[in-house]
Design brief:
Shape of chain B: elongated
Number of strands of chain B: 1
Largest sheet of chain B: none
Structural class of chain A: alpha+beta
Number of helices of chain A: 5
Structural class of chain B: mainly alpha
Order of helices and strands of chain B: HEHHHHHHHHH
Largest interface: A-B, 44 and 34 residues
Oligomer: heterodimer
Distance between the termini of chain A: 38 Å
Largest sheet of chain A: 6 strands, mixed
Order of helices and strands of chain A: EEHHHHEEEHE
Strand content of chain B: under 5%
Strand content of chain A: 15-25%
Number of helices of chain B: 10
């Protein structure tokens, strides 16, 4: 998918009031946030995904079997969901961290973050891509399991990048001047 | 005074802001995640075994005499697989997915205080109780709803509970 690709959306869905909303892309019953979590819990999908990206799992930053990778995603997804639920209930989603993408390279330097200190090398696989539309207010455009350094290296992450940049253009055309930051969301572990 | 919804300004551009039920559904999932984890692990084991043996989900369905859709529900990891069906799958694939282990003594003591369980409710699961010398990966997780570990140790699998009511299982 190349830059400038046109995506069609239906509406946006509020996940957590005033903090998280997600785009519902055309031809999808659910919004992209829910679709991500459905996929990240679908064992059949995960097994097929990692089987097809086995070579990526053999890279030095991962060194995981398919089984280990599936378990890692399940753990990360559960942690993320658990913390968002807890934060939504308490009204405090402070642990939700927005990490801006490098606008030149459309990537970020992969460093161990405290977000997943207990995981493999402390690096998370899951990504929720979002545009920051206001202070602590994010519009999620999609998500992915990211196994490479940059998003351009794989078709499924390139597509997420295209959706992000597409949505930025839409918002700016609509005079949403706050839509200047885009990146991904991560939940910090305590 | 009502607080402005921060997403309302996007409404005109993006075609409306709807509410999601995700939060409520996620709370339910979080409450039930122990059981879900077991289903997921079994599903993964089945899928990896099918791949290793170069079998399809339909092949497994044929061996079990169930529909391919049923097998697909199991391997998604979201649907409960009964212990009886796990046993059937094990036989169909010639693998051991789960084993039973004799529980730790402190587990038995906890179970002593549980209320009487209707024996016949457990009939479906006798296949695992009948051969107690096997070991289970997580006995508490698999048997937590049945509260019968103490009973399993003491009774013959096919003897009705009523015949044992005078015998002591609590000490």
């Amino acid at each position: 998918m190349k830059n400038g690709a046109i995506f069609e959306f239906i509406d946006i869905v509020e996940i957590v009031a005033d903090v998280l909303a997600a785009v519902r892309w055309k031809a999808s019953e659910k919004n992209c946030f829910e679709n991500c979590f459905d996929a990240w819990r679908d064992i059949e999908h995960l097994e097929e995904f990692f089987e097809s990206f086995k070579l990526d799992l053999e890279r030095k930053e991962w060194k995981l079997t398919v089984e280990q990778a599936v378990n890692k995603v399940l753990e990360e997804a559960d942690f993320l969901e658990q913390r968002i639920v807890a934060g939504a209930v308490s009204g405090d989603l402070d642990g939700l961290v927005f990490k801006a993408l490098n606008k030149n390279e459309m990537s970020y330097k992969k460093v161990a973050t405290k977000a997943y200190g207990g995981g493999t090398n402390g690096i998370a696989m899951l990504r929720l891509y979002a545009v920051r539309v206001n202070t602590n207010c994010y519009l999620i455009t999609g998500g992915a399991i990211k196994l490479t350094d940059s998003m351009q290296e794989r078709k499924h992450t390139q597509e997420e990048l295209d959706k992000l940049t597409f949505m930025i253009d839409v918002l700016k055309t609509g005079n949403v001047d706050d839509a200047s930051d885009y990146g991904y969301l991560e939940m910090e572990r305590n | 005074m009502a607080t402005e919804n921060k997403f309302e300004k996007l409404e005109k551009i993006l075609g409306g802001v709807k509410k999601s039920n995700w939060l409520e559904e996620a709370k339910v999932r979080q409450a039930n995640k122990a059981g879900m984890k077991t289903n997921q692990m079994v599903a993964l084991y089945i899928l990896r075994t099918l791949r290793k043996q170069k079998l399809t989900q339909r092949d497994l369905a044929d061996r079990l005499g169930v529909t391919a859709q049923q097998v697909n529900k199991w391997v998604k990891g979201s649907e409960n697989i009964s212990i009886a069906n796990v046993e059937r799958i094990q036989k169909a694939l010639g693998v051991r997915i789960m084993e039973l282990r004799e529980p730790e003594p402190e587990v038995c003591m906890k179970m002593v205080m549980e209320p009487k369980v209707d024996f016949y409710h457990l009939r479906e699961h006798l296949i695992i109780f009948d051969n107690f010398k096997q070991s289970i990966i997580n006995p508490l997780q698999m048997l937590q709803n049945y509260q019968t570990i103490k009973y399993i140790k003491c009774i013959n699998a096919f003897e009705p509970y009523e015949n044992k009511k005078d015998k002591s299982y609590g000490s």
